[in-house]
TrEMBL record:
It is found in: Membrane. The chain crosses the membrane at residues 27-45, 52-73, 79-100, 121-146, 166-184, 196-214, 220-239, 251-273. It comes from Rhodoferax lithotrophicus. Its main location: membrane. Keywords: Cell membrane, Membrane, Transmembrane, Transmembrane helix, Transport. This is Transporter.
């Protein structure tokens, strides 16, 4: 609520829309949707399948992605990542909500319950929450400010810069704190399978599509690294909201994050050869 918006707004407040390239982002979502659909069909087109499909495609682009990309690719890489972050949750969480609500509506119709109106309201609420949120909103506002041609006065810009620079180390500490509360136990096998799909298969799909389409190396590198990031916390909130596969998702978050120490290193080493 403080450090993240400060970093996002300050970074995007000097970026003009014509500098943004949405082609790598579109390519990223094509790869994510392919994996999402594959897991959904494989797991049986039900509520649990929708949550697990989201688990395999939703990256921790903020808490881990921002510090990592900032260190590896600098300001240019951050702008590319922020372009993805601005629509990441909106696209994937809305998709998962639509799928889950359709499945739920089908189940409820079989029991003589449910309505199309309820489903529509839920989807609209998902879209709204994907925009009115501490992550995409400051990106959008920062971009809008940049288009005015104005420059942040130092009395505003300097505090935002200081708050934003604190985000990286604090975020990584919080990730570690979260992991200490997670019990993996009997869900290790399922969590490991989900983590491998998330950490390795998704970046492989992004890399294959990007190379086939001739994407610029720098943009493609950031997208591949973003795809290799561990599972994001929003997946747990999603599972909790629908009361589906909460234990598996929680375990998968922990395993995906710990496994990321090895898989992100591997992915970034291979990306460096592009």
């Amino acid at each position: 609520m403080v450090l993240t918006p400060a970093l996002l707004f300050h970074t995007m407040s000097t970026v003009h829309v014509e500098q943004l390239n949405f082609k790598p982002v579109a390519m990223y979502f094509v790869a994510a949707l392919l994996l999402f659909a594959g897991v959904l069909v494989w797991q049986g087109l039900n509520r649990r399948a929708a949550v697990l499909a989201l688990s395999c495609t939703f990256s921790n682009t903020v808490m881990i992605g921002i510090p990592l990309v900032s260190l590896a690719y600098g300001q240019t890489g951050l702008v590319t990542l922020f372009t993805l972050i601005s629509v990441h949750a909106l696209v994937l969480l809305t998709l998962a909500t639509v799928v889950l609500e359709m499945v739920a509506a089908r189940e409820e119709r079989g029991q003589g319950q449910g309505s199309q109106w309820h489903m529509a309201l839920t989807v609209l609420a998902a879209i709204k929450s994907g925009i009115i949120h501490p992550v995409p909103l400051p990106i959008i506002l920062g971009l809008l400010f940049a288009q005015t041609g104005l420059v942040l006065p130092e009395v505003v810009g300097k505090p935002l810069q200081l708050l934003g620079s604190a985000f990286g180390p604090v975020a990584l500490v919080l990730v570690g704190v979260t992991l200490t509360q997670v019990q993996v136990g009997p869900y290790l096998k399922s969590a490991l399978g989900i983590s491998l799909l998330k950490n390795l298969v998704l970046p492989m799909l992004v890399a294959a599509l990007g190379l086939a389409l001739g994407m610029p190396t720098r943009s493609l590198s950031v997208m591949i690294v973003a795809a290799s990031l561990p599972m994001g916390a929003n997946v747990f909130l999603f599972a909790q909201r629908y009361e589906v596969a909460q234990e598996v998702v929680t375990a998968s978050m922990a395993v995906s994050t710990l496994l990321g120490l090895a898989t992100i290193t591997l992915v970034m080493s291979l990306v460096g050869l592009l």
